[in-house]
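ok posting inputs for the flavin-adenine dinucleotide job
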Amino acid sequence: MDKYDLCIIGAGPSGYAAAMRAIDFNKKILLIEKSELGGAGVNNGALSSKTWWELARSVDSLYSHKSRYNLSTSEINFNELKQQVAAAVAERKELLRSHIEKLKSGDNAKDITFLKGSAYLRSPHLVEITSENGKQTIEADYIILATGSRPRKLDTIPIDEEIIMTSDGISNLKKFPKSMVILGAGVIGCEFATIFSSMRHTKVHLIDKGDRILPFEDEDVVKVIEQNMEAHDILIHRNSRMIRMGIVDGEVEYELEYSDGKKEVFHVEKALVSVGRVPNYENLGLEEIGVKMDSRGIIDSDTQTSVDNIYASGDITADIALVNVGELEGRHAVEKIFSTPSRKLIYENISTIMFLNPEVAGVGLNEIQAKKKGIDYKLASVDYKIIPRAIAKRNTQGFVKMLVSNDEEMKIIGLRVVGEHASSAMQAIALLISMDKGIEEIAECVHPHPSIPEGIQECVRLFLGKSTFKPYALNNLLHCETHYCTDEQG
Ligand SMILES: Cc1cc2nc3c(=O)[nH]c(=O)nc-3n(C[C@H](O)[C@H](O)[C@H](O)COP(=O)(O)OP(=O)(O)OC[C@H]3O[C@@H](n4cnc5c(N)ncnc54)[C@H](O)[C@@H]3O)c2cc1C
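and the output
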């Protein structure tokens, strides 16, 4: 029986990152993947959807330029766009595959094996792998579970991944649908609504059970996104409950009930069900060997499961489901196994981007979260209209909003940037949050010009009373205020 120092189950972003960190410790590693290298980080997930988004942004801008400069353009071809997405996915997968191959050869060859097959734990140290060559069992000192997640399905909706799809079925589309309903106004649902509406061939309906999309995000952020969605002819069904959805004569029929009790039936060509993801922890033998789980995923403490030699990372754990978080956890698990990490995992400085129109970047808390935690904060906000880079882009829609602690230190609590290049300054702020630092460093640091981060710098200078533009003169473009949660609660 082959024996390994570490066996990693699942070669998505988390498992792959774990394997590569284990290489640094010169260990004998087995990486097992039952489907596609890269997991949802590449296939039917982060990379594929972001390639669609980038293409959709180009198409959208092409249409804007067409009217701005009175240009004529030929028809956008769906299959050409789809081929670009397939090429991006293939390129990344080939890089991941050839990287492993190259690591195994040469003078400094590493002991890593990549196996295509489905893994099952027979005991805490024995992994059974079923592949096209049959079954084999290996032994491993340590195991990392990185089996990820899959789209949540609802029993009442007949998902066939052709007419009614999840995000896994997008790659089955053969042309732009004339119309499409998206059930779920969370991040993934709103990203696809942005993608399809930007291509200008699909009438998008978005079913939102609340009175606004992205319910976890601040109202001012959501307002900009909703405005653009409606300008792109997206029909947002607010305060609506879906009573039924089915396939009738090859198309989708769905019925909604609104909060006032009124009901309405709609017909569209395709549907995308985007109601969250569920962790892949079934059929792994975990219960039998005592790994504790709840409905959100594996219960872990700093990536350690309830079984000594078994760790878990990525979407299978009950926390934030993102590529960067999965990679962080995978690397951290390996460091815990083979050394001592310099600190415990922290999630406070995780930066995120929502790929909408425009993009929304964030790090730390937003106002909703700060209020929920009862934190008093100062807020500074700067409109894109005063940022030269946005003016040069000829698109000044957006703003920068920063929250800091309401004390002398003014430690950064959170940042939201809505607009073109929104994500360009997140790292600096994430670093300051993780270092528990105040804002002076940014106020005096010379920023490249013209750049969107200059808007963040102006926010910081607002807090310090030394902004270039004065809020008392341009109150509609920048302002600073203090919010007392303690007052509201008391
Ligand atoms: C449409 C969409 C868009 C997204 N956009 C973003 C984004 O913009 N930014 C971002 O950070 N995140 C994004 N995400 C989330 C991101 O893709 C996931 O958080 C990330 O892929 C999780 O990585 P993972 O390694 O934990 O799991 P996965 O990527 O799910 O990989 C797990 C792997 O394990 C394999 N596996 C499962 N069971 C077994 C078994 N028994 N044996 C062997 N192998 C097994 C699976 O086949 C899979 O390949 C998006 C997700 C979706 C669906």
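notes: The two ends are 66 Å apart (CA to CA). The pocket of flavin-adenine dinucleotide is lined by residues 9-15, 32-36, 39-41, 45-46, 49-50, 118-119, 146-149, 167, 188, 280, 284, 314-315, 321-324, 326 (CB under 6 Å).
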